[in-house]
Specification:
With 259 residues, the chain is of the alpha/beta class. It folds into 2 domains: 206 residues, 3-Layer(aba) Sandwich (Rossmann fold); 36 residues. It contains 8 helices and 7 strands, in the order E-H-E-H-E-H-E-H-E-H-E-H-H-H-E. It has a 7-stranded parallel beta sheet with strand order 3-2-1-4-5-6-7, with helices on both faces. Helix 1 links the parallel strand 1 and strand 2. It starts with 8 loop residues before the first strand and ends in a 9-residue tail after the last strand. The mean pLDDT is 96.
């Protein structure tokens, strides 16, 4: 299927590895000019070089921490008029209520509430004026199924989801869509971090923790980052113009709810 977005411009946040990288690669393969972002020069350059091998247009890298004004400004100056914005960031510190600090809560809000909204405010008017915009937020399954061990993540991402839903209703008439992808158990660095934490907390081997991760999924396997990338590319497509304001679980069939 031709997704109808060749020649478009996309910002993909936190895209030097993992899910963000997969989203950037999927868009580049569709002929989108992509601006990658990461905090570390070397890993970002490796990602840019790898995506250039599959991309059909230019691929750019912008170093910056998106929780800072300087980092966001650098990215927006490099691509001031994106047609596509994919928000993403590293996961906040996991933990139960008594295990997380005020600093952990502030960091979660910066990562997964304030930073995406700052970017949204800057790019949304241009998308409306051009009568095309696709915003995809990489959130988490904890938005609809809050986890007692992921308190900071659950709260910050749920708040972002509410704001994005409100804005989506205002801009849909201008062919600007806003949707959220809710990954769960994707085989990335985040799952390795959580497996290590589980092994230490429960006194089991790392291998056992990894096995439990896969068994917790209805599909009995971890998802591949490329599967998130493919979903992201579709929601950025011309064909997806009538889909907006939605949360889409990408979780191997594990979500238990009806809606």
């Amino acid at each position: 299927m031709d997704l109808g977005i060749a020649g478009r411009r996309a910002i993909v946040c936190a895209s030097s590895q993992g899910i963000g990288f997969a989203c950037a690669a999927a868009l580049a393969a569709e002929g989108v000019e992509v601006w990658l972002n990461g905090r570390h020069t070397e890993s970002l350059q490796r990602a840019v070089d790898e995506i250039r091998a599959v991309g059909r247009l230019a691929v750019h890298g912008v170093v910056g921490d998106l929780t800072t004004t300087e980092g966001r400004n650098a990215l927006l100056e490099a691509c001031p008029d994106p047609d596509i914005l994919v928000t993403n960031n590293r996961g906040p510190r996991p933990g139960r209520l008594g295990e997380i600090s005020d600093a952990d809560l502030r960091e979660a809000l910066e990562l997964h509430f304030a930073a995406p909204i700052h970017l949204l405010r800057v790019v949304i008017d241009g998308m409306v004026a051009r009568e095309f915009g696709r915003i995809v937020n990489i959130t988490s399954a904890v938005v609809t199924r809050p986890s007692v061990t992921m308190v900071a993540s659950s709260g910050a991402r749920a708040g972002l989801t509410s704001v994005m839903k409100a804005v989506s209703k205002d801009v849909a008439k201008h062919n600007v869509t806003i949707n959220n992808l809710l990954p769960e158990r994707i085989d990335s660095g985040r799952q390795l971090q959580l497996a290590k934490r589980t092994a230490e907390r429960e006194g089991i081997t790392f291998e056992e923790a990894r096995r439990r991760q896969a068994e917790s999924v209805a599909a009995q396997r971890l998802g591949a980052p490329a599967e998130i990338g493919a979903a992201c590319a579709f929601f950025c497509s011309a064909q997806a113009g009538y889909i907006s304001g939605n949360n889409v679980h990408v979780d191997g069939g594990s979500y238990l709810g009806l809606v």
